[in-house]
Structure formats: structure tokens, C-alpha cells
Design goal:
Layout lengths: L8 E5 H14 L5 E8 L10 E7 L5 E2 L4 E2 L11 E8 L8 H6 L5 E6 L7 E4 L5 E2 L3 E2 L13 H9 L11
Parallel strand pairs: 1-3, 1-10, 6-7
Antiparallel strand pairs: 2-3, 2-6, 4-5, 7-8, 8-9
Pfam family, one: Prok-JAB
Keywords: Hydrolase, Metal-binding, Metalloprotease, Protease, Proteasome, Zinc
GO molecular function, one term: metal ion binding
Length: about 170
């Protein structure tokens, strides 16, 4: 893994955008909010350098209502994979409010998804709240990337008699 990511954001993975649309619809009539994380495009099989949005991070303790979603800032991670935010507007309005603009400072792209949460019901914005283009990219996302262990690792650990890392599960 490189220490600094490429500054070019190539797009968002189709599967990730599908997840966003479903999550926004499932949360309706309340707002949905999450943070966008990206991976190096070369690790996803693309022949270009740059980043592709692949993950949505939902921060524990996020409070949501029909008119806002609030995140405790001390819970928001600050990592190199963070590239922006996503939130829904249950009223369908696809432009940032003044409150949205106050949160757009971190990251390079911010998505707003409006009801009825279809493919034509989202827009991307830069930090200043100006519309920007974001391609939907067809890449295959690796399965179970979040944890760096397999089910076999868990089973082997659970079979150990010395307590081990997963002893709290027993």
C-alpha cells in the first residue's frame, strides 16, 4: 500500500453506488449519512492510476431525522482512504443546503441522493458545493475486505484451548 494516494478520483464502483441507493431508500423518511472511502484503481484491475470509491463508512452514533443527519465528529475516522461524504435528502432536492456546505470541507467529493433514490436521483459536489462529475465504474470489488482473516482462522482460534484472541466469545 502506498503512503499517499493518487489525487485523481476516477469514479465510484457501481456496486457501491447500488448500496448507497438502497441504504438511502431503507433509511427514508430519515436522512442517510456516510463517508466515502476509496481504493487504488490498480488493485481493482484498472489500467490507470487513481482512486475508485469502493466503501461507505457509517459512523456509530449517527443521529438521523427527516431533515438532518448528525455525526459526532470525534467518531469520524481520519484516514488516507477517506475521500468525501454521502447523504440523502428525503425531500428529493439535489443541491446542498447551507448546513451541508459546512460539512463539505473534508474530502474531494460529496454525494447527495434524493428520493425516490434511483439512478437519476443523485449528484456529486466539490468542497465549495459546486456540481462535479463522478463516473460510475464497473469494477469487481473484492469480497470480505474489511477483516484481514478468514472463517478458517476464526474456527482454528475457537478450537484452541489457551483462550486466544476470540476467548471472549465463549
Amino acid at each position: 500500500m502506498r503512503l499517499f494516494r493518487s489525487s485523481e478520483l476516477l469514479g465510484i464502483a457501481r456496486e457501491t453506488m447500488e448500496f448507497i441507493l438502497e441504504a438511502c431508500e431503507d433509511t427514508h423518511p430519515n436522512e442517510y449519512m456516510g463517508f466515502l472511502r476509496a481504493e487504488d484503481a490498480r488493485t481493482l484491475g484498472l489500467d490507470r492510476s487513481g482512486q475508485v470509491i469502493t466503501d461507505i463508512l457509517v459512523v456509530p452514533g449517527t443521529e438521523s431525522s427527516p431533515v438532518s443527519a448528525t455525526v459526532k465528529t470525534n467518531m469520524k475516522p481520519n484516514d488516507l482512504k477517506s475521500v468525501g461524504s454521502v447523504h440523502s435528502h428525503p425531500n428529493g432536492v439535489l443541491r446542498p443546503s447551507d448546513a451541508d456546505l459546512d460539512t463539505f470541507g473534508q474530502g474531494e467529493v460529496h454525494l447527495i441522493v434524493g428520493a425516490p433514490y434511483g439512478w437519476g436521483n443523485w449528484k456529486a459536489f466539490d468542497n465549495a458545493g459546486e456540481p462535479t462529475h463522478l463516473d460510475v465504474v464497473d469494477v469487481e470489488l473484492p469480497e470480505n475486505r474489511f477483516f484481514d482473516f478468514t472463517q478458517e482462522d476464526i474456527d482454528a482460534e475457537l478450537e484452541r484451548d489457551d483462550g486466544g484472541f476470540f476467548s471472549w466469545l465463549r
